[in-house]
Specification:
This protein has six helices and nine strands, in the order H-E-E-E-H-H-E-H-E-H-E-E-E-E-H. With about 190 residues, the chain is an alpha/beta fold. It has a five-stranded mixed beta sheet with strand order 5-4-3-8-9, with helices on both faces. It has a two-stranded antiparallel ribbon with strand order 1-2. A hairpin with a 2-residue loop joins strand 1 and strand 2.
Length: about 190
């Protein structure tokens, strides 16, 4: 019996060691990118000093994207005008075959006038998504040619120095998102 207790204690301590809140090696760190908007290139290096909310989605998304972008818009609206001027939400399309910069502009603006929609080549988007730890997978086309793209539902919070500061899950209350933004504002 004592042997079982020692073995169980050892297993529990190993599990606890694995779950500590240290940053794992190879954890996503985010990163700068240049992608295309309807108004031209968006280079995150030129947005230094602003808090960024980065979301990966697509305009034909039936549920996750509208919910996530609406939550981002509510958080932006919860900020003061000065705080909002120092914050930018960017939707990166994971469907470059269908989402043009013009479509993304209209789609993002539907949720909030200060929101940007950007796209790039499939290779560019893959690199950016990987740097944030976002995943997506295009599903096979249906008989009518339409298809869905499964994707991460998180929004990534980037600090004014361009570093990934937090990952915001879908369903996070507006007040918590606004508080996370305010915490990072200079």
């Amino acid at each position: 019996m004592r042997r079982l207790f020692i073995l169980l204690s050892l297993c529990l301590s190993l599990l606890a060691a694995c779950s500590e809140s240290r940053s794992p090696i190879g954890a996503p760190a985010g990163g700068d990118f240049v992608l295309q908007s309807a108004a031209g290139p968006v280079d995150t290096k030129t947005l230094r000093g602003k808090v960024l909310l980065i979301f990966f989605g697509y305009t034909h998304c039936p549920d996750v994207c509208p919910a996530s972008l609406a939550a981002g818009a509510q958080a932006l609206n919860a900020l003061t005008a000065d705080e909002r001027a120092r914050t930018r939400m960017i939707m990166i399309s994971v469907d470059p075959d269908r989402d043009t910069p013009e479509q993304l502009k209209d789609y993002a603006a539907f949720f909030h006038p200060d929101m940007l929609g950007v796209t790039g080549s499939a290779a560019q988007i893959e690199v950016v998504a990987r740097s944030f730890g976002a995943g997506y997978l295009r599903q096979p086309a249906r008989a009518d040619g339409s298809y869905a793209v499964d994707h991460t539902a998180n929004t990534y919070l980037v600090d004014p120095d361009g570093k990934l500061a937090a990952t915001i899950s879908l369903g996070t209350p507006t007040a918590d998102i606004a508080a996370a933004i305010r915490k990072l504002l200079p």
